[in-house]
Amino acid sequence: MVTKDETLSELERTELLFLSKESGFEQGYFMVQMPFVQLKLINYALAKKKKRTLFPNELLFFPAFTRAWRWADFELMLPHFHSTLCRAFSEQLGSLFDDQFPLKNILRGCRGPQAFLNLKVSLTDFGVFYEDHQCALNVFLFYLVDLNGSCCRFLTTVDAVAEVVESIDCNGEAVDIFSGIFICRAGNALVDYRTYHRSATKNRKPVALFFQAKHSEVHVVGSSITWEWLTMWHQRCSASLAEVAKKFHVGIVLVTNRNVAFPEGEVWPDNLLVISRDQLAVYLGPLAQRGLLANPQ
C-alpha cells in the first residue's frame, strides 16, 4: 500500500501512520503505529478486493456509551492478530530470514526463557479456526465434562492429558494442526487458543503454543496477577500437556493487560511465556492502545 516514491515522513504528515520510540527498543528502532480508523479502512478494502480480512469486521467497532470497548473484545482479536503477524512475516520477510523465524520475533516483547524464545520455526499462511468440540473444566475441582456428549480431542476425562493429534475438527472438517490458530470453544479450561509451528531447525521437534488470554476470569484479588497463581496455572497446564510435550516443544503463554508480580530470584519455568501490561506495547504495535485499556472493573 506504500509506493516506492513515498517516505515514512510523508505518510506521517498525512496521518496514515506514525513512528514512536518505545522503551526497550534498540537505538535507531521505532514502533510503526497506525490510527485505528486506518486499520478499519484497510480491513474493509481487503474484504472488498481480496475477500479476506485481517480481523472480523464486527470486532473493529468504535466504542460508544451503549457499546464500550472491553478486554473481552480484545481477547477475540488476539488470535487474528497472531495470524496476521505470522502471515506478514512469512510473506514479507521470508527471504530475509531464510524462512527461519525465532519465536522472539513473533512473540515480540515476550518475557520468558531465551532458550525457548530463540527456537526457530517455519511460518505458513496461517488461518484462524474455531474448534467444533466443547469442553468445560470446573475451575475449582478440575474435572472435565463434554458438553456435547461426545469425546473431545483436547481434554477428555478427569485425570486425562491432552491427546497428540494431527488434525482438529473445525466447522465439520479435519484441519491440519500446522494450518493456523485454533480457538477453543467457550468454557474450555486453562487455555483459550493454540497454534503449532514446524521447526525450522533440522531434526528438532515442532513447537506448540497454548495461550490463555481471559485474565478477566482469573480468580485473583487486586490489579496484579500473582506469581503464585501464575506458577499454579503453569503447573496445571504442564500436567495436561505432558503427552504433547513428548512430541513438541510446548510453550505455555499468558497474555494479559494486568501487571504480573514477578519476584526476584525465582526459578523461571523453561517454557512459561508471559506478555503482560509491560510487554503489550511491543507485542501489539498499532493495536497497543486498545490492548492497554483498563480492566472492565
Question: Helices and strands in order, then pairings?
Answer:
Elements: H1 8-13, E1 18-20, E2 31-33, H2 36-49, H3 71-93, E3 101-102, H4 103-106, H5 114-117, E4 120-121, E5 127-130, E6 135-137, E7 144-146, E8 167-170, E9 173-176, E10 180-183, E11 193-197, E12 207-212, E13 224-225, H6 227-240, H7 244-247, E14 249-255, E15 259-260, E16 272-275, H8 277-284, H9 288-291
Parallel strand pairs: 5-10, 12-14, 13-15, 14-16
Antiparallel strand pairs: 1-2, 3-4, 6-7, 8-9, 10-11, 11-12
Kindly report the average pLDDT value.
76
Helix fraction? 25-40%
Number of structural domains: 2
Per DSSP, the total helix count is 9
What attributes characterize this protein structure?
single chain, 297 residues, alpha/beta, six-stranded mixed beta sheet, two-stranded antiparallel ribbon, 9 helices
Provide an overview of this structure.
Helices cover 27% and strands 20% of the residues. With 297 residues, it is α/β, with parallel strands linked by helices. It folds into 2 domains: 1-53, no CATH class; 71-291, no CATH class. It has a 6-stranded mixed β-sheet, with helices on both faces. It has a two-stranded antiparallel ribbon with strand order 1-2. Strands 3-4 form a two-stranded antiparallel sheet. Strand 8 and strand 9 (173-176) form a beta hairpin.
